[in-house]
């Protein structure tokens, strides 16, 4: 009976032990199941030199399921469609300083990060699904030359795919991110990546987000139903393709660029709140756009516009471009060409777009006379007085504007000038102009029909005289024609009612309070074109012991040995009379804060704790095997001595 009990116990313990082991199937291929340790040991074993296959769903009780393993390089880990689930902390699969691995066909959920590539090279991540992770589906840091293909990330709390801190020269192809907070992230020196055929939708913030990362290639990516489709900032993408991308149904921007050098080609945009917005506050930026399609809200090639532009966006300038419906009325003699209208509007500064070019196809010309095409402008005041360009390039099928400040809706019209009045036989007057070049300066244009130079709608003036006297006004905003010198004003309030002088600079009336002291009220001095008040107007403006003389506080004669009260004139204290009181130095204007933080701050102490837990577990397993071996040895010895004792008794 004792023998049977010992053998049963031995077999049970052995079976229990083997339930936590991996299986060598030969040829460097192994299988694992049941728990994370099982698979980790297999991936770290030299016996499993080629591939480890997961045969069942596994779950982690805590820590990384597949931690960074010393011997996990040049191997394939194939989950075969099985899942790896966690308790909401740490990492599902973590590679650190590994290379030439493939992770495929895994479903990873419930970890802080589903999969984390750290200092890893030439890793292929293919056909995996990362979902319901509290932070990120797939994260990459300091990793290069990795191939991330045909993966899906959804329902992750923060990012679907996040590349940070010098993750460069990676390829992301045919991946899908949806219903995360953000879809795809490239943050801080994540350069030279190739992002192709990826899809991002249903995110509360960005579909694709790029910041401080340069020279990435974006080809045939789509972003829809996000807050922002493509959001790029503080990056240089000049010389690298941004081609065939599509953004639609995004709540704010289809394509937003802040301080970005970029060349956009064959991009399609529709039904975004703003299809394109470009701006900068840190210096100039180069923005070039070729054959960009602004489709109608349904996304069809009806009532659409094909636009190209080339612009150096000056510091502080910004503007947006979006599809627009046709205004209700058209100018006399104008007919819309295929309902091609765009809303191009200033967002900040006074931008001047270097060039804007409208394109059309020969197939669209049925029923229209191309030579009559013009670009016309419509704003809150109605249609402009004349076309902005009435000379279409019929060979290239284009119309262009140059150095134009956007402010309204622009459309291509077929325009026929109204019939001129009948000649009464009198002498014809010499026309003032035949083209814009005949006008005094760029503030004027040559009006079609009446051959006269007129101020452009964007111009307040052409010469200084255009600003006088209508621009002689007071700070209260009241226009007055009473000569300034006849006004009876309280001297203390003189500055608030100073006369403004205007000059015409770059077609705008620019105000100056003064040019010399005589332009200011009595006692004031002209400093930097501003009337500066004197130290005092009357004795009451000075401290006790001082009186006002010629707008300066002068100390009264004091009996010998006495000091003036309060140490000086009003508002000056111990400083010399007439000096400006010292002001604390103002702090510098803060730079914009970093938008995105590191995905998961893996603390060194946590890593050490994980290592101690792993060592303790390995020690326990080793102890179990030693105990099993001792029990087996005792059982064998017991059987041998029992049989020997029975033979001795028989004899």
Write the layout of secondary structure elements.
Layout: H1 2-18, E1 23-26, E2 29-32, H2 36-44, E3 51-54, E4 58-59, E5 76-78, E6 83-85, E7 91-96, E8 102-104, E9 107-109, E10 113-118, E11 124-126, E12 129-131, E13 136-141, E14 147-149, E15 152-154, E16 159-164, E17 171-173, E18 176-178, E19 182-187, E20 194-196, E21 199-201, E22 206-211, E23 217-219, E24 222-224, E25 228-236, E26 242-243, E27 246-248, E28 253-265, E29 268-270, E30 274-279, E31 285-294, E32 305-313, E33 318-323, E34 334-348, E35 353-359, E36 373-379, E37 382-383, E38 398-404, E39 407-415, E40 444-446, E41 453-455, E42 501-505, E43 508-512, E44 525-527, E45 530-532, E46 546-549, E47 552-555, H3 604-650
Parallel strand pairs: 2-3, 3-5, 4-6, 5-8, 6-9, 7-10, 8-11, 9-12, 10-13, 11-14, 12-15, 13-16, 14-17, 15-18, 16-19, 17-20, 18-21, 19-22, 20-23, 21-24, 22-25, 23-26, 24-27, 25-28, 26-28, 27-29, 28-30, 28-31, 29-31
Antiparallel strand pairs: 1-2, 30-33, 31-32, 32-35, 33-34, 34-39, 35-38, 36-37, 36-39, 40-41, 42-43, 44-45, 46-47
Helix pairs in contact: 1-3
Q: Which keywords apply here?
A:
651 residues, mainly beta, 39-stranded mixed beta sheet, two-stranded antiparallel ribbon, 3 helices
Report on the architecture of this protein.
The chain is mostly beta strands. Helix content is 11%, strand content 35%. The protein contains 3 helices and 47 strands. The strands form 5 sheets. It has a 39-stranded mixed sheet that branches. A two-stranded antiparallel sheet has the order 40-41. A two-stranded antiparallel sheet has the order 42-43. Helix 1 (2-18) packs antiparallel against helix 3. It is elongated.
């Amino acid at each position: 009976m004792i023998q049977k009990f010992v053998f049963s116990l031995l077999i049970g313990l052995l079976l229990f032990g083997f339930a936590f082991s991996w299986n060598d199937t030969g040829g460097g291929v192994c299988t694992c199941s049941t728990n994370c340790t099982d698979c980790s040991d297999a991936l770290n074993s030299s016996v499993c030199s080629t591939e480890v296959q997961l045969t069942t769903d596994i779950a982690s009780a805590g820590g990384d399921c597949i931690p960074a393993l010393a011997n996990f390089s040049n191997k394939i880990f194939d989950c075969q469609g099985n899942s790896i689930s966690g308790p909401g902390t740490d990492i599902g699969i973590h590679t650190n300083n590994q290379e030439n691995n493939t992770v495929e066909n895994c479903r990873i959920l419930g970890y802080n990060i589903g999969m984390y590539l750290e200092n890893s090279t030439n890793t292929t991540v293919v056909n995996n699904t990362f979902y319901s992770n509290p932070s990120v589906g797939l994260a990459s840091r300091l990793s290069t030359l990795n191939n991330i293909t045909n993966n899906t990330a959804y329902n992750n709390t923060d990012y679907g795919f996040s590349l940070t801190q010098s993750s460069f020269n990676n390829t992301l192809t045919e991946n899908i991110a949806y219903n995360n907070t953000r879809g795809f992230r490239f943050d801080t020196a994540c350069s030279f990546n190739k992002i192709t055929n990826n899809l991002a939708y249903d995110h509360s913030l960005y579909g694709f987000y790029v910041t401080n990362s340069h020279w990435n290639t974006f080809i045939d990516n789509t972003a829809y139903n996000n807050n922002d489709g493509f959001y790029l900032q503080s990056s240089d993408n000049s010389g690298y393709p941004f081609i065939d991308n599509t953004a639609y149904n995004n709540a704010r921007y289809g394509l937003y660029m802040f301080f970005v050098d970029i060349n956009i080609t064959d991009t399609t945009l529709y039904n975004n709140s703003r299809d394109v917005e470009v701006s900068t506050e840190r210096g100039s930026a180069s923005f070039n756009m070729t054959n960009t399609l602004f489709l109608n809200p349904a996304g069809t090639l009806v009532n659409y516009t094909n636009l190209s532009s080339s612009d150096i966006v000056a510091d502080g300038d910004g503007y947006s471009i979006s599809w627009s419906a046709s205004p209700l009325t058209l100018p006399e003699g104008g007919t819309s060409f295929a309902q091609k209208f765009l809303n191009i509007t200033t967002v900040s500064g006074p931008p001047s777009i270097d060039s804007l070019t409208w394109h059309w196809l020969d197939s669209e010309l049925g029923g229209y006379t191309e030579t009559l095409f013009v670009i016309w402008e419509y704003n809150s005041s109605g249609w402009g007085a004349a076309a902005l360009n009435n000379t279409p390039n019929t060979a290239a099928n284009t119309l262009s504007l140059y150095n134009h400040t956007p402010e309204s809706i622009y459309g291509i019209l077929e325009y026929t000038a109204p019939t001129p009045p009948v000649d009464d036989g009198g002498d014809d007057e010499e026309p003032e102009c035949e083209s814009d070049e005949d006008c005094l300066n760029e503030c004027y244009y040559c009006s079609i029909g009446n051959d006269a130079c007129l101020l452009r709608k964007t111009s307040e003036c052409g010469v200084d005289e255009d600003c006088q006297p209508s621009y002689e006004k007071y700070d209260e905003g009241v226009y007055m024609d009473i000569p300034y010198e006849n006004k009876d004003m309280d001297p203390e309030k003189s500055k608030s009612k100073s006369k403004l002088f205007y000059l015409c600079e770059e077609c705008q009336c620019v105000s100056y309070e003064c040019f010399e002291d005589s332009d200011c009220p009595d006692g004031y001095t002209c400093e930097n074109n501003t009337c500066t008040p004197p130290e005092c107007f009357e004795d009451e403006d000075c401290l006790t012991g001082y009186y006002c003389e010629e707008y300066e506080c002068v100390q009264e004669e004091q009996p010998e040995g006495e000091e003036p009260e309060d140490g000086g004139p009003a508002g000056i204290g111990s400083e010399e009379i007439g000096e400006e009181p010292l002001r604390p130095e103002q702090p510098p204007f803060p730079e914009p804060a970093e938008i995105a933080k590191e995905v998961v701050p893996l603390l060194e102490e946590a890593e050490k704790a994980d290592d101690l837990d792993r060592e303790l577990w390995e020690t326990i397993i080793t102890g179990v095997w030693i105990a099993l071996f001792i029990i087996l040895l005792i059982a064998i010895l017991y059987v041998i001595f029992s049989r020997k004792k029975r033979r001795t008794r028989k004899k």
